[in-house]
């Protein structure tokens, strides 16, 4: 049986193939759409390439200048922050709204702290403000340089299988993520992502004004329990927090209309559909 999420993503990927871009000696993947309107940078988590945001890219193309990225196979958060600054400068973007999810949210916070002049708004989504606690848990306590890649991939598979058992309505999402971790994300890229989070630097304070910082979270996020979500909010003191009653760790995939609605709101675009929608709350 055809998986509708994978089929839709693959259709998008065929129309918008990932372009390889060299940034300070590292090769990134970039999917760009739109040439007019506010600039939006989309940074995925560990189990996503640039096109995992395909539903938001399609919905916003023509109204915003969207740049989604795929991580290189080397470097870490510090190096990647400099690479993203170079990417924006190469493309003539003076300042962008920067959304990062999970690992991408950690990188987005670092980027906003060290390059505030390039950030119009920071959207820290389904992410954390410190990596101190995760270092003791798998896969981060494994040998990420030399451990068998099959074991690392199997660990993701066990977690995804457990999520599907408790959320059978998200079986299509799980299949998509299994394909990502199963080989669509190469071994060097996957190892680099895991090491980037395990070895992530302490995040410097974000100096952006309160009203230009946004948090996005899900009540049912299996990777980020409530204490970690509260710690992120305490650290960032966001002007707005969007809270999904359901959506797990990937609300942009399983709640695409609502996610697009909040992006429209933050980009000061006309809100289409039902906005950020039923099953979410917005706190200031």
Automatic annotation (TrEMBL):
Primary localization: cytoplasm
A GO term, aspect molecular function: hydrolase activity
Cell compartments where the protein resides: Cytoplasm
Protein name, UniProt field: Maspardin
GO cellular component assignments: cytoplasm
Keywords from the named record: Cytoplasm, Hydrolase
InterPro entries recorded: AB_hydrolase_1, AB_hydrolase_fold, Maspardin
Keyword Hydrolase (UniProt): yes
Ranges of residues in domain AB hydrolase-1: 38-201
